[in-house]
Amino acid sequence: MNPLNRLVVRTLPLVPRPLVRSIASRYVAGETLDEAIATVRALNADRCMATLDVLGEDVTRLDETEATVIEYQRALAAIAAQGVDSNISVKLSALGLKLDPDHCRHQFARIVEAARAHGNFVRIDMEDSPVTELTLQIYFEFLKKYERVGIVLQAYLRRSLEDGRRVAQVGGNVRVCKGIYVEPASIAFQDREEIRDGYMRLLEALLAAGRYVGIATHDPVLVERALALVARLKLTRDQYEFQMLLGVARTLRRRLTSEGHRLRVYVPYGEAWYAYSVRRLKENPAIAGHVLKGLFAPGSSETGP
Ligand code: FDA
What we know:
This protein is an alpha/beta fold. It is 50% helix and 13% strand. The two termini are 30 Å apart.
């Protein structure tokens, strides 16, 4: 770990909560649904679509999952009532995946029913490798019941190209990202270029198979390669979209939208913002560098949501 990142992670518990909050506010829409919808509205005005994520993951008690289901139901209702352009992204571990997969299925079904009632789309986020296969299985099960459910594949996992083929066979809608969890070399590429190569192989396999892909990255090298691929495959703008996290790479984001590409911003919100920020830092201390940048250049040249 880079010594600076290590220092940030170690000293984080000493940093006053309001300060962490002010740093996190660039990456998190707020604690309430109203704040999240206001952020989505601002993004829509800036030619971006959104996906709402209710913060919270890896629950330790099954009764904690209820609040998450209710919040997603409220979010879907608010998106419809307020006419904003957003879908939702769900982490199955927030619904008890790691405690009781059947409970998770039951709770996820309630969210999917609400999405169906509002004609909206649900993306299942991909978490760490112990739950990759189970997450895919649940995705395949739900895709049979409701076609507007999508999945995420992580390019750093050695298995993902094969998973991409499985998903392509059933006609899935896939977000491709590098992968954020720390995984061992036995199952995941570690080298930056190897991960990029894995990303492009997976992206090409999915796009060439006619799948709709969310190209989730802020890596300018990957964005250029993806644009070249899209041009080579002669895809139209409605066959893919770019995706970025709230508060990250806004200059690149605006370049893509001004060129007419569809772009969706991932908008996390909820009371669990502090746990989310701290956990992300501990899991992947490389992000600490970004937090530090946020601390010293909170306004920087990139403004807006
Ligand atoms: P890279 O890490 O090389 O970053 C490129 C540049 O982007 C950096 O140099 C930096 O400037 C900036 N940057 C990247 N991340 C930043 C951050 N957090 N804060 C500030 N600046 C940052 N992962 C996963 O395992 N499961 C999932 O379901 C998802 N879902 C998801 C949705 C969306 C919309 C995005 C954009 C990403 C994810 N991810 C994810 C995270 C993803 O796997 C990956 O960790 C990050 O996107 C960083 O990888 P990049 O491709 O951006 O490249």
